[in-house]
Q: What sequence folds into this?
């Protein structure tokens, strides 16, 4: 199972790179809440691959939501099954508010620009309707009753479709065939998911992390703590985003530093790791290091940015 997922991640990374995306190295993102970060122009994707969507929960997806929210990116799940049911190509699903599609649908979307037409929700499969085309079709000489008979629904439902309500797939197909027009509007799973609010409250910081984040707040940064990420927080102001790590003497700091530097390169943001005591190194795997004492002496954000830029 692990090998299958690793191969699928590698395949999806290849799809992205072949279509002009710069991508992170999945090995750097092991044990965090997402597998690939990719950018092409203004399009930023935060991708997680799962063999079974039932293995995912809200806390596991918190990291990709945090990153997507910070950089105005699109979180996206690529899945094979949900429970015992296999996910269908051409259908957009959702898990904890994040769009989910199959690898085949992903290839169609990224390589050929073909988005899914259908989305799954409670009660079955649904589509978006072009309400303006539906309204014009009726104004061509059909009554609400005529439209209702064609679609097999009530006149009130037809009126709701004209006001923008989505329709079940089978109803939309009947309307298209009966009216001789195309009503179904494709769904882009990368649109509309970028800026939603975070559904979980951030974890409170403690110890050295709290000391550092409090200082960053005092000098003007807004700090959002993070879980399931290679960073511990996102610090930001109007102009700058810092992927912020704190050295808590945990193993794997070199790997985290490399992942931070990689994210910074792809997303064109800054990264920094704050350490209790600064040794001989002021840069680790491409991520600048700043000592806690240096931060405490910094009077403003300008000084912090000077330290970061001279150590990149």
A:
């Amino acid at each position: 199972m692990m090998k299958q997922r690793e191969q699928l991640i590698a395949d999806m990374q290849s799809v992205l790179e072949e279509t002009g995306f710069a991508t992170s190295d999945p090995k750097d993102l092991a044990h965090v809440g997402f597998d690939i970060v990719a950018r092409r122009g203004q399009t930023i994707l935060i991708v997680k691959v799962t063999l079974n969507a039932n293995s995912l929960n809200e806390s596991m997806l918190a990291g990709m939501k945090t990153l997507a929210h910070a950089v105005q990116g699109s979180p996206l799940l690529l899945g094979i099954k949900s429970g015992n049911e296999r996910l269908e190509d051409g259908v957009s699903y959702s898990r904890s508010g994040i769009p989910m599609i199959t690898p085949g649908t992903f290839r169609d979307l990224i390589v050929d620009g073909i988005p899914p037409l259908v989305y799954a929700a409670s009660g079955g499969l649904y589509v978006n309707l072009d309400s303006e085309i539906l309204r014009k079709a009726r104004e061509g000489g059909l009554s609400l009753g005529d439209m209702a008979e064609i679609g097999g629904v009530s006149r009130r439902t037809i009126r709701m479709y004209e006001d923008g309500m989505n329709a079940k797939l089978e109803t939309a197909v009947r309307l298209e065939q009966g009216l001789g027009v195309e009503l179904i509007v494709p769904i882009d799973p990368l649109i509309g998911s970028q800026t939603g609010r975070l559904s979980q409250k951030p974890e409170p910081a403690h110890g050295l992390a709290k000391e550092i984040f409090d200082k960053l707040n005092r000098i003007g940064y807004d700090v959002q703590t993070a879980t399931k990420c290679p960073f511990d927080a996102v610090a930001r102001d109007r102009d700058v985003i810092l992927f912020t790590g704190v050295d808590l003497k945990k193993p794997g700091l070199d790997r985290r530093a490399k992942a931070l530097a990689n994210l910074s390169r792809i997303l064109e943001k800054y990264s920094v790791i704050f350490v209790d005591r600064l040794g001989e190194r002021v840069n680790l795997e491409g991520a600048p290091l700043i000592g806690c004492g240096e931060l405490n002496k910094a009077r403003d954000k300008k000084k912090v940015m000077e330290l970061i830029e001279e150590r990149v």
Observations:
- The chain has three domains: 2-116, 124-185, 207-311.
- The longest strand covers residues 43-52.
